[in-house]
Amino acid sequence: MQEAILKAEKLSKYFYEPSRFQVLHEVSLSIQKGEFVSIMGKSGCGKSTLLYLLSTLDTDYEGTIDIHGVKVTGLPEKNLARFRNEHIGFVFQFHFLLPEFTALQNVMLPALKLGRLDTPAIEAHAMEKLRQMEMHEHAHKLSGKLSGGQQQRVAIARALINDPDIIMADEPTGNLDSTNAAIISNILQELARQDNTIIIVTHDRDFANRTDRIIEMVDGRLQEPAVHP
Ligand SMILES: Nc1ncnc2c1ncn2[C@@H]1O[C@H](COP(=O)(O)OP(=O)(O)OP(=O)(O)O)[C@@H](O)[C@H]1O
Fold it and tell me: Where is the ABC transporter domain positioned along the sequence (predicted)?
């Protein structure tokens, strides 16, 4: 039997503005180690909200989440921030790189945040991740000066720097032209082939078809038997 790296049980989430509204309805799912999973569904069905819960960025919900054998639900924010930085790599539609820092510095940042002091080793590791994204030649350029597709590749390198157990990506190709979207989806597929666990939210059916499993969401509920037999 395969090992579940992430287990979510009965996640419910409410928003209160402009009025009380249940966006997630007892969502349960299990992600196996090495799985490449996509979450699809109409705009507003709750995909990003679910990913934010799974990524521990949003802690205001009912239900429980276990990641890597740790019950993250209820952990104090300080512990959670460290856990997140160590175990989860994020890629967003808008990459949130620091434009006045170089590509290399952006990639190094999550490792420095862990308090590792061996800066040359971190730099070498960051360069390796940039090389993996074929971005090493741009390492010393300010990230704000790179193209959207290049910035997204730097964002993926940054997500990989602490060798996370899970990579989560919220519409990683959503903001890119078709050529750059193809580059990013190929990179993610290659990372999946290398046995990384990846969860993506996407509107792109072709991209989703390349993942191991598509989870369909409708109005805050999952449409498939999300737990593997
Ligand atoms: N902070 C918030 N406060 C109130 N309502 C919110 C908030 N964030 C999201 N919502 C609402 O919750 C619902 C789900 O939003 P969510 O962003 O998760 O959907 P989505 O499926 O990811 O949509 P899209 O595909 O357009 O990104 C939407 O109706 C949205 O308007």
Answer: 6-229
State the closest ligand 1 atom to the C-alpha of 171, by its place in the atom list counted from 1.
27
Q: What is the pLDDT of residues 153-168, one digit of tens each?
A: 999 999 999 999 999 9
| Centre of ligand 1 from the C-alpha of residue 21, in Å | 11
Q: How many residues does the chain have?
A: 229
The overall pTM is greater than 0.80: yes
Which residue, judged by its Cα, is nearest atom 28 of ligand 1?
A: 44
How many alpha carbons fall within 13 Å on the CB side of residue 28? Answer: 6
Within 6 A (CB) of ligand 1 lie 15, 17, 23, 41, 43-49
CA-nearest residue for atom 6, ligand 1, is 15
Give whole-number Cα distances, 83 to 110, 113, 200, in Å: 12, 12, 20
| Crossing angle of the two packed helices 119-132 and 148-160, in degrees rounded to 10 | 130
Q: How far apart are CA 136 and CA 133, in angstroms?
A: 8
- The ipTM of this complex is 0.96
Quick one: which H or E segment has residue 218?
strand 213-218
| Section 83-99 average pLDDT | 87
Residue pair 87/165 in contact (Cβ under 8 Å)? The answer is yes
CA 169 to ligand 1 centroid distance, Å: 16
Residues 185 and 131 sit within 8 Å (Cβ to Cβ)? no
The CATH code belonging to domain 4-222 is 3.40.50.300
User: Who contacts 120 (Cβ-Cβ below 8 Å, separation ≥6)?
Assistant: none
Ligand 1 centroid–CA 45 distance in Å is 7
